[in-house]
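Form 7-S
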Amino acid sequence: MKRYSIRLTDEAELDLASIYSFVRKTSASSTVARDYVARIKTFVSGFETYPSAAASAIMSDPDYALSVSSAE
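Output:
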């Protein structure tokens, strides 16, 4: 299975830092905040295999609309 490299942009890293701060403040627990951000990073790392793992399911579903745009 082909794997893709996932890299968070600087903006995404800042967003995660903001999420950490918000969760830390509202939960009063650095452990909860750290675990929350770790779950997000784990979810995002799943995109390493998403394109090849999901392609056949997406293409075989006539009700699924896939839109891809270029960042160029």
